[in-house]
Amino acid sequence: MIYGKREYQTPVIKLYIGVNKDNYLECSPVKKDFELKQEGKRTDTAKLIQKKIMEKYNLKYPLDDIVQILPGDCSI
In 1-76, which residue ranges form alpha helices assigned H by DSSP? Predict the structure, then answer.
């Protein structure tokens, strides 16, 4: 039997959201524009990404398209 304190580690998945050369949104493990972490609400993150993409690229994407590519609950 093993005695002692347990140490749990939460896996960290870093994904990046960006706009490719054809102006399509993509979510990939390669570094692009916005780094995502596993915490927070999905819709709040999508609204923030929509705002930043509008500022940086002057492109407007529907909120549903952004929510669709996000992996569960995440934040920037």
Answer: 42-57, 63-69
Question: Is there a contact between 35 and 14 (Cβ–Cβ < 8 Å)?
Answer: yes
pLDDT band at residue 25 under the 50/70/90 scheme: confident
Query: Would you say 17 and 35 are in contact if contact means Cβ atoms under 8 Å apart?
Result: no
At position 70, the amino acid (one-letter code) is: L
pTM of the model: 0.65
Q: 37, 76 in Cβ contact below 8 A?
A: yes
pLDDT of 46-74, one tens digit each?
Answer: 888 889 888 888 888 889 988 888 877 77
